[in-house]
């Protein structure tokens, strides 16, 4: 394993609205190695998107460290942070909302080049065309507006914009969940290709377990602002430890006629992050919960090689 | 994708100049506007008005202030199509020259309030928090006073005259634009494409200028069109009560005021400037409504 | 042989937009037997939702228009009946579950009232009786009856979808049309709702048309499957037939596009290209520009419905013996 590109220590984000505090991310630690894809899965409201944005400082964290190549970017001033943006980029979920409807495709892709003054002025147009070809967009679309493109093409524009500054690390926030399956496969392949070509490191956020498994080297599972399990992809799927992960995996409808493993259907809804349950946050829905799960919060600890679980019963 | 490599080869690309040509996104709006007959007619009236103002020297039969005391208060006739006033001045010529002033007041006052109000609204909406609070409470104070009263008060302080009228009318309509821009900015600020701009390292200023303002242009344009009508009406009102432009300037409101005393003997002195004001204000309102319908995506089929 | 509940024949729906004709649904035919679930699978713009709306004759006219076809239900052709007759069918004998539980409920009425209204509208009962029945239906979908006095915003997404199901089931319909009922829900909540739907279906012996893009959901719920592409059903069969022996190249493409949790593949094999523009559907077989096995005939000739084994039908020239034999005789290569 190569060394960590990004290391997050005890990251916390609390949103305060009026008198209420939403504990969106509540003390998570993880590291992402150079050139790997770390999958981050969980249900809506578990804090996975917030975590992704925190690592880019698109949202300011309440506390904790974000070390990128050994430097804590939470300590950076505005100027250094702007320089750092060249190293870290993001691909967004909604290809409709993430492109400015009044900017042409060409302008959208050229902006990062202009902001960071990459290349000579007169070469930038050609750079844009090269980027477009790289992501499989017909260069003739350069003067079109986003609403003239379909979802898959727009997502390619988003990818080209992220690639323009030649970053090392890209947060992919549900990049294919708004796309049809046949287009989804095209975009996933593209993302794999550019990862290899540019030696990219991905934080891949998704609720779709089959997609996450397909792209990830390691996977972290989040529940209510905490990481409950973290392991290599195959290990996580074949040697699942945490009861929540087990339920999550069994809940996915698999398109096959083969005998399916017994479904664990969790009762009830995810509790509100405004006042998460005491002790282990999953105890209200956990079929195996014991007395101490209500009181004592389990630590994330290593149970096998590179396999971390936060559960008293493991 | 094989199709891509194919087309890129045969495509003649302007390699030398890195200019990205922009297709006008308002072209659809224009076509939708053309479907609205009433709006097209009112646009015609407005175009006519602008031409009249520009070509006043050519088309006006007499100079605006040429007095002819032998011809006072003549009813409309072949020489004076709309009659003459108490000094024997040709009313048609005065209305034609008056269009220059009305248009000037309308456009300058609105440009002033759109610019200033827009900046205030954009800053308030984008930064939020106490900045927003201070700026918008100040706007609320302005809004608490009826527009025309505010304008009267300002002209009273500054004194009469064209520039002061424009300033007064402009300030009185500031809060409307500040509010509209703030509301649009608030809805755009949290959109993903703004976050995307942040992610590539754009500065706040650049985000406001490139992403936020162009996207809230539509409601501003509509409001500005309606605002021109309000400004023309207010300026005429100010002149009518003697606070605006002073005689002998051919201002429509002032003309109404001057003709008031002869309203029973010589209806034409007040009627025709009145019709001019009504026509322009009506045309602007109808056009503004048509523009709003054309720009509203909910009405898009 | 099972009893047929609804039979759709040669249904075509067309929309007009800015002077252009959009053929949303073209000559589709299918039937649903009593107690069975038919899955209609396809991507955005395939015409799934239009088909569902056309069955209940809820297509907005204009811009939409049902061009031709018949929908035989309960001895009547729903496309020919008067509006007053249809109103008695909708929500009563055929009811619908919508994709977005956030917007399909009326925010200003309590959940109980919304269910009671459907009952009161279709059954000759007093309002108090209707409310009582509404409570028991809520219990049926796993919501305590007391919560009937709460407003939609007090429910979570999964709970709202249960309410949507409760409204749909209020009058014991014979047919339930569910349009992407779990797409907006989280996986664990989706599992709850799917379990609820299959349990209720067995308990009440309701037939169902399930519209979805998710082959996983189909495999858990459906008995029959229809694959739609560009307004046509390109393949139809039992769940077994479609999943064991997907025959149409589009169906195969769909299966290959999904990452499989059970096996590791390095790269996915997507279908090339994009869905065709609905105003310019390609000639011949509408899938031919994206089809890896396209032949010369596919461009010029529309394939007929070819019966394979059992109930399995496919609309593809590869299975048309006259086309394939003609090729062998003239010795043409099978790919252009």
Automatic annotation (TrEMBL), chain A:
The keyword Transport applies. It comes from the Bacteria. GO terms for molecular function: ATP binding. Coiled coil: none annotated. The keyword Chaperone does not apply. Residues 6-249 form the ABC transporter domain. Keywords: ATP-binding, Nucleotide-binding, Transport. SMART domains: AAA. InterPro entries: AAA+_ATPase, ABC_transp_ATP-bind, ABC_transporter-like_ATP-bd, Oligopep_ABC_C, P-loop_NTPase. Belongs to the ABC transporter superfamily. This is Oligopeptide/dipeptide ABC transporter ATP-binding protein. It comes from Evansella vedderi.
Automatic annotation (TrEMBL), chain B:
It is found in: Cell membrane. Pfam families: BPD_transp_1, OppC_N. This is Peptide/nickel transport system permease protein. The chain crosses the membrane at residues 38-60, 101-127, 134-155, 161-181, 216-246, 266-288. It is a multi-pass membrane protein. SUPFAM superfamilies: MetI-like. Residues 99-288 form the ABC transmembrane type-1 domain. Keywords: Cell membrane, Membrane, Transmembrane, Transmembrane helix, Transport. Its main location: membrane.
TrEMBL record, chain C:
Keywords: ATP-binding, Cell inner membrane, Cell membrane, Membrane, Nucleotide-binding, Translocase, Transport. It comes from the Bacteria. Its main location: membrane. Residues 6-255 form the ABC transporter domain. SUPFAM superfamilies: P-loop containing nucleoside triphosphate hydrolases (SSF52540). Gene3D superfamilies: P-loop containing nucleotide triphosphate hydrolases. Transmembrane segments: none annotated. It is found in: Cell membrane. The keyword Metal-binding does not apply. GO terms for molecular function: ATP binding. Pfam families: ABC_tran, oligo_HPY. It is a peripheral membrane protein. Belongs to the ABC transporter superfamily. NCBIfam families: oligo_HPY. This is Peptide/nickel transport system ATP-binding protein. It comes from Evansella vedderi.
